Amino acid sequence: MSNWTRRRRLLVPMAFAGAAALILAGCAESSGDGGSGKTTVEISGGITGGEADALNKSFDQFTKDTGIKVKYTGDKSFEGNIVTKVTGGSAPDIAIVPQPGLLKSLIGTGEVKEASDAVSKNVDKYWGKDWKAYGTDDGKFYAAPMLANLKGYVWYSPAKFKEWGVEVPQTWDELIALTKTITEKSGGPSWCAGFASDAASGWPGTDWIEDLVLRQAGPDTYDDWVSGKVKFTDPQIKKAFDSVGEILLNPEYVNAGFGDVKSINSTAFGDVAAKVADGSCPMTHQASFLSANFLETKTAAGAAPKIASDGDVYAFVLPGEEAGQKSVEAGGEFVTGFSDDANVQKVIEYMSTPEWANARVKLGGVVSANKGADPSLASSEFLTETMKTLQSDDTTVRFDASDLMPATVGSGSFWKGMVNWIDGTPTDKVLADIQAGYEN
Amino acid sequence: MTAIDEPGIRRATALSEREVKRQEREARNKLTSKGATIAAIVIAIIWTIPTFGLFVTSFRPGADSSSSGWWTVFTNPSFTLDNYFSALTSGGTALTLGQSFINSLAIAIPATLIPIAVASLAAYAFAWIPFKGRSIAFVAVFALQIVPIQMALVPLLSLFSRGLTINGVSVFPGFDLRDADHSFATVWIAHAVFAMPLAIFLLHNFISEIPGEIIEAARVDGAGHGQIFFRLILPLAMPAIASFAIFQFLWVWNDLLVATIFAPSSSLPLTQTLNSLSGSWGAQWYLQSAGAFISIIVPLVVFFSLQRFFVRGLLAGATKG
Q1: Which CATH number applies to A40-150+330-399?
Q2: What pLDDT score was predicted for residue A14?
């Protein structure tokens, strides 16, 4: 007993002394790395997992040539945290912002630096006007686009299509006819979909609607819809809902491999990849990035699926009303600088060049809309195709509408509306509810 | 005073002992029944199933996990340690899970010790040093518990990075955070600050219950505040301190928000890498099951080794009088 108390008597002051020492050590450390001229440029963004590793690697050559180290840190809740960090005065050197809407609110804090002339020239040269406009606010150009993904793909199995003797459709009517044919031939539903994505549940549905608005009503109406001039209750938007509803609300056509119409809401958006790969789901609508989800799936025979136009899995662009229509919806990120440091500016400039795009595309899994980049470097036939579509001069590219709308609608009532719509709420009520998001 | 003979006392104690035993038996009979035991076991099993499923998933090959449920292992067993290996070595961000595991320890241990050190001193002062406005100050400190942590993030971060200047006088110069790559100080301070109201409240309630006679006796013997605090208060308050330490450690260990906001990129904790493991589109979600079990080890060790304090300490601060 007395032994124990004596030991304790010693322990307690020691613990205090230790705590104090740690505090002091920590303070000293935080002021250690200062100095002039940044040797390590910090980038943060929402990209995580294997894509984050590849992003870090894409700067290897740059570091060798210039001696500037680049460190990317991914954060899943980036969209929320970056606003806190920037307002708190602790912004990273560079942020990779996935939504033009978020970019605008960051610019609003006054911390974002305008892009240099070199970056601006690169964007003029290598990207379309549409892309530059998304990085511009109030006539000033801030952020160059980085990578891109193409929305509005329909993933299918070329092998199964051959077995059923059907072809890739060229128009929307052909797609509906194809849906019917597959249902008759396979005896089951022909589409699958998954809207579940935690707090963001419903976003895969917004992509469906946006694709249809862009194809049926055209890019101009799409722009007006994004800016709020065309309301959700407008007949043109309702038409898009009705067209999507022909497939997604029809119990005969969905939800292949999962259950009935309502199971769309309980299926995670990435899980559909496994069902497309093993052949139990003939078609699903998702962006180009779904290709990443096929890496860990198996075909019915147990092998890894081959993503090729003659393989197990491939995708066609959702057709428009007429054959050969070239309006596509895309998503992408923007490189936003928060520092005037010469080395930081060098990194930003490098990221807008075709050299960087090539370095990153070569590492696999992604595509760039940079017109100077070489599509043949992409890691699969599918990604090469995607890149060509994005780079092509006759493709009209429109950014994901829900990312452009105000957050209360784009990542609020629109997402929620899609979930309710699948749950059976009448279309008119859903449209009125989504529109009401503008008043929040 | 009426004198009571010894046998009388003995009889009385024997009687009361018998009475106590009878009551114990009664209570046991009332409180336990086979049905209740079975129900408790069934509930325990049902509650454990999701964790068990996650545990099984962490040992299944990724391709299996994304195409079939974990329960299929019973008919079609196939296990691998790959998930644990790739979870530890690939972080899905600038750090690997292994590196951030060390960071988590470096954050959680000081972030537990600092608030205890400060709060036990403050609690002693609030309980045993009479000064003007003591109760108001105590209530004010505890009232801060109401302020949601999210509201304090931006001001605190701004204080750290920009400092505080009032009317041209630099009250606090601020740290040069933008150039710091590896530093824990801000996270420690943030955690300590956010923990303070509850820590002071809990420890105060416990320390104020220590009989005043003991402290008076110590004072008569010539002990000052320092001696009273280190030799009497700290040893006696150990159960409360330990139970708060468990709370605080688990809270800091599981924290994602505070660390993501305050820690520089090389000092991010385990929760941050765990969150990033699945990748942008969630394609590698099965790695998270392995990562979750790696991260759960430390809280389990802490909890089981301090468990006896936990039960005692929980009641310690809770009831007064």
Answers
A1: 3.40.190.10
A2: 53
Position A303 pLDDT exceeds 70: yes
Listed by number, the residues of chain B in 293-312 with a beta carbon closer than 8 Å to a beta carbon of chain A are: none
Which residue in chain A is spatially nearest to B282 when comparing CA positions?
A270
Cβ within 8 Å, pair A48-B66: no
CB contact under 8 A, B261 and A88: yes
Are the C-beta atoms of A145 and A333 separated by less than 8 Å? yes
- Domain A153-327+404-439, what architecture? 3-Layer(aba) Sandwich (3.40)
Q: Which residues of A touch B148 (CB under 8 A)?
A: none
Taking CB atoms and an 8 Å limit, are B94 and A47 in contact across chains? Answer: no
Mutation pick from B151, B154, B280 vs chain A, by most beta carbons of A within 10 Å, is B280
ipTM, two decimals, is 0.76
A250: left (phi over 0), alpha (psi -120 to 50) or beta: beta
Query: For B16-31, how does the pLDDT look when each residue is reduced to its tens digit (9 = 90+)?
Result: 777 888 887 877 777 7
CATH 1.10.3720.10 boundaries in chain B: 87-318
Whether B260 contacts chain A with CB within 8 A = yes
**What are the chain B neighbours of A271 within 8 Å (beta carbons)?**
66
Report whether CATH 1.10.3720.10 matches the domain B87-318. yes
Q: For residue range A143-183, list pLDDT tens digits in order.
A: 999 999 898 899 998 988 988 889 899 999 999 999 999 99
pLDDT for the residue A16 = 53
**Is pLDDT of A184 > 70?**
yes
* Mean pLDDT for chain B overall: 84
Residue B1 pLDDT more than 50? no
- A312-316, A389-393, B4-8, B97-101: least confidently modelled range: B4-8
Q: In whole angstroms, what is the distance from residue A388 CA to residue A375 CA?
A: 6
State the pLDDT at residue B248. 93
Q: In this complex, which of B188, B260, B279 lies closest to A48 when CB atoms are compared? A: B279
A302 contact partners, CB below 8 Å, separation of at least 6: none
A interface mutation test: which of B149, B260, B266, B275 has the most A CBs within 10 A? B260
Taking CB atoms and an 8 Å limit, are B63 and A296 in contact across chains?
yes
User: Using CA atoms, how far apart are residues B24 and A334, in angstroms rounded to an integer?
Assistant: 71
Residues 6+ apart with CB under 8 A from A165: none
Flag if B281 and A77 touch (Cβ within 8 Å). Answer: no
Q: Which helix (H) or strand (E) holds A97?
A: strand A94-97
Residue ranges of alpha helices (H) inside chain B are 6-31, 34-58, 62-67, 82-89, 97-128, 134-143, 149-162, 185-207, 212-220, 225-227, 234-236, 238-254, 257-262, 270-276, 285-305, 307-318
Q: Is A90 close to B177, i.e. CB distance below 8 A? A: yes
Residue written as token pair 């990562």: B291
* CB pairs A-B closer than 8 Å: 188
Domain with CATH 3.40.190.10 in chain A: 40-150+330-399, 153-327+404-439
